[in-house]
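Following up on my earlier thread - several people asked me to post the actual chain instead of describing it. Fair enough. Here it is, all 205 residues.
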Amino acid sequence: MSVSKKLWLLSIPYLVGVLCGLVALMAHPAVFKLIYTWRAPSAHVEDALRIGQALWEKTPFREVNQQLQSGHLETKEIQHFEDVRQVISHLPVFSLGFLAFALIVLLLDRRASWGQLHNRGFFLLLFLAATIAAVGWYHWDWLFYCLHAPFFKADSWLLDPCAYSLELYPEPLWQALFVIYFVLVGLVFLLPFVLGARKADKASA
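Reply from S.P.:
Thanks for posting it. Predicted structure:
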């Protein structure tokens, strides 16, 4: 297999590893607390943060529901958060596993560098972002379904508009999270380019 082809193939697990790692980072209680309190989208901050903390615990959400102070979750919401917890619990493993696989295979080959793999991961990211943007513009409901149905059981993610969790985590919060996430992704992939350019400028000076 040619080096170029192998790099493109390895860029897939590499990109998946980076994206999963950043989702896990933002979902971590300490990071999520900073974002949530900065945006302050709900008056029930304690309940929102308690649910966020519980996603990293083993406490059943039926018990977490009883600990909430200003409102309570319906049965479907409880199931949904159990599903979210299961997804989040796998993210660090997936991130480390995919990244380790890509980098180990790269090191064993010795014909290519991490920079080349990183560059291809960036181009793959641009293609993926453009595809998602185009699909979302053409048929948002279908994209929303594709991003939720594979990860959550049945229809637990189809919540009643009056659900308490939608009050705790309203649309403006998700918009802010979306922006912050893609800023972080951009920094991860663009920072090496910036540092490399500065290093080249110093070397040529």
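The chain has one domain: 3-204. That should answer part of your original question.
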